[in-house]
Amino acid sequence: MLTYVLFGVSYGFAAAAQPGQLQAYLISRAVSTGWRRTLPAVFAPLLSDLPVIVLVLLVLTRVPPAMVSGLRLVGGVFLLYLAADAIRRWRRRDGEAPLPDVPAHRTFIEAVFVNLLNPNPYLGWALVLGPWLLEALERSSATGVALLGAFYSTLVVASGAMVVLFSLARALGPGVARWMLLLSGIALGVFGVWQLCAGARAVL
């Protein structure tokens, strides 16, 4: 179970640290309205990911095991791509660029729709989290719940910390964001190699 919890924590941190539509929305709202009004929006994935999870798991449970193993290999490559992209952004000092101008209203529902229209949850669940969750559930229901709990608790806490950070320390925010990119890139790279090895073992 510890392996799945560690993966959930690492992937949750990487998901929160990676630049994306929801992160841009949270940063924009934190800078413009402060952390107290923005903080509820970090819980948006708990609602918006539900249809994504159901859709992906319905598909994955109806395909041959070999296809799930193949998805693990593709997911490993996808994680390595994300890792390389994060490190490339870190080297270019993208985290110190001006914050994107993302128009947003102060509502939790808008954050939900921002995430629903974001391709990252669909890719993440189809290629990475879906196969991991199926494998965890094969071990036990508690292992699957532990994986989900570790991922979403880390995602919410890390996103909340980012909101507070950018709200209270705007001058330091971009520099901190750049180092978060590096940390997320390292975490993604480690788990990308891990997932490639796991997929290769399953295929062989």
Through-space gap between termini: 24 Å
What does the average pLDDT come to? 78
Q: Biggest β-sheet: count, sense, barrel?
A: none
SS strand fraction = under 5%
Rough shape?
globular
Please report the number of helical segments: 9
Radius of gyration of CA atoms, rounded to a whole number: 17 Å
Fraction in helix: over 70%
Compressed to H and E, one letter per element, the order equals: HHHHHHHHH
| Count of individual beta strands | 0
Low-confidence runs of at least 5 consecutive residues:
99-106
Structural class: mainly alpha
Can I get a quick summary?
By secondary structure, the chain is mainly alpha-helical.
Structure description:
The protein has helices at residues 2-17, 21-33, 35-38, 44-60, 65-91, 108-116, 119-139, 141-168, 173-203. With 204 residues, it is mostly helical. The longest helix is centred in the C-terminal third of the chain and has 31 residues, at 173-203. It is globular, with a radius of gyration of 17 Å.
SSE blueprint and pairings:
Blueprint: H1 2-17, H2 21-33, H3 35-38, H4 44-60, H5 65-91, H6 108-116, H7 119-139, H8 141-168, H9 173-203
Helix pairs in contact: 1-8, 1-9, 2-8, 4-6, 4-7, 5-7, 5-9, 7-8
Short descriptors:
204 residues, mainly alpha
